[in-house]
Design a protein that fits this description.
single chain, Rossmann fold
Length: 127
């Protein structure tokens, strides 16, 4: 069984480090990191992740625009938005912008664990 391949896109280096450490401790292969939306698109092209964890608020290209670009060229790649913004309006905006899911950062650990368990070994499972 191949490990789940994940790209982490967030403009805060400390947050990326925290997320990648958490993922690796659970057997997930982190294939790349991106500090802005343009890097997320480029890294997706280069690394072919199964899943991209995408922050909404990023420089150069925001998470919504980057998600639409990724899904346009890699429709099989799942993109889950991570955000400190709470509320249904952000979740709805994420889905309207081609995201496969939405996780609020304040409940991230539990939500990421559930996502990993769901996706590990079967990247075709819907989020």
């Amino acid at each position: 069984m191949q490990p789940l391949k994940v790209l982490v896109a967030d403009d805060h280096a400390a947050f990326r480090t925290l997320v990648t450490s958490f993922l690796r401790s659970r057997g997930v292969e982190v294939v790349g990191e991106a500090a802005n939306g343009n890097e997320a698109v480029e890294q997706t092209d280069r690394c072919s992740p199964d899943l991209v964890l995408m922050d909404i608020s990023m420089p150069k290209l925001n998470g919504f625009d980057a998600t639409r670009e990724i899904k346009k060229h890699h429709p099989q790649t799942k993109v889950v938005m991570l955000s400190s913004h709470a509320g249904e309006v952000y979740r709805k905006a994420a889905l309207e912008n081609a995201a496969d899911g939405y996780i609020e950062k304040d409940s991230m650990k539990t939500a990421l664990q559930a996502l990993i368990e769901k996706e590990q070994g079967s990247v075709r499972v819907a989020i």
